[in-house]
Amino acid sequence: MAQVLFRGFRLCNTSILSKTAAACCKCERRTFKLLSNLQPSFVSLSNKKLYSSQSEKKPAETLGTTRALDPLDIFGENKDERRKEKEKAIKNLKIGFFFIGASLMMVLGSGLYVLMDDNYYKKDEDEKDMYPVRLFNRGRLAIREFFESMRAPSYEKLLPDPLPYPYIQPPYTLIIEMTDLLVHPEWTYTTGWRFKKRPNVDHFLEQVSQNYEVVVFTASNGFNVYPILDSLDKNNVIMYRLVKNATDYIDGHHVKNIDRINRDLSKVIMVDWNADSVKLQRENALVIPRWNGEDGDQQLIQLAEFLNVVSASEVNDVREVLSYYKQFDHPLEVFKENQRKLLEMQEEQKQISGTLPINKARGSWKDKYLYGK
């Protein structure tokens, strides 16, 4: 009888414990409450110890799992590594700010040292002004001089002094643009940028180099210009090359200022297609149409004839000739027409009289040949 009661009581406790175990899987706190409500018995105590030991092990396992997952954030990155990287970035930022601040202090200190030089700025300021006002005016003047230096050429003399005797110095100086006068840039998908050589370039350079000091003056960068001229000028007839850093930057244009050319301007001829590039000395410029890459172009032959006539005529001041052709959009066509008229006049002179003094004829023909007078 006792064994039957004991087995029945054990089955009852087992059913209750099964419910408790189900509650334990859902909530550990509820497990302890259910265990506390059980009747004190040997089985219940043993089961209570069993469940209490299991409930004590679960938080430890949960904490261990949490500790293992804590270093990883929602993106799966290690929090310790991110913290180290953040500290390193802050350290680098502080070092950068330190160097920036030190550089600014050095610049400001050197600027104040320069502005406090009374001997340099004394001639341009009023001694009656307060010293802070004078420092402000000096700073404004220094900024203006800085921007003017950025617009001006890199050097005062663009060309060296003329060759002394016994070396041969050509009597005239020809300054010619490279882009769209000697070569033309072209771009395609297959080849990219290429420079097309103008027809009759070799003939032109050979003809003008006999009486002219040939100077190529362009607003392009030197690293583009020098390789092109090396392949273009095989006979080395181009004596000097002037590029972008030799121009004056005025009103958004790179202007060629031949006041710095270190030559007598009465013997200097500039040939260009852009009137804005030669606007400072327009009386020394011959502006001709731009070459766009046409294959049958003959303009360089006409230009060589014009320049050879100027040199052969021994013109004292080329600006007189160039001022006449400045009024025409196509000056070389006008020159060609004047040449045709001159040949007709010569034929008429031969038919009328063959006794005209040669010197007098040459003097009158020269004016007709150059000026159209």
Describe the structure.
The protein has twelve helices and nine strands. The radius of gyration is 47 Å and the shape is elongated. The chain is α/β, with parallel strands linked by helices and 373 residues long. A hairpin with a 2-residue loop joins strand 6 and strand 7. Helix 7 packs parallel to helix 9 (299-312). It is 54% helix and 11% strand. Strands 5-4-1-8-9 form a five-stranded parallel β-sheet, covered by helices on one side. A two-stranded antiparallel ribbon has the order 2-3. It has helices at 2-26, 28-36, 42-69, 79-115, 118-121, 131-151, 201-208, 222-232, 299-312, 318-325, 331-352, 358-371, and strands at residues 172-176, 183-188, 192-197, 212-217, 240-242, 248-250, 253-255, 268-272, 285-287.
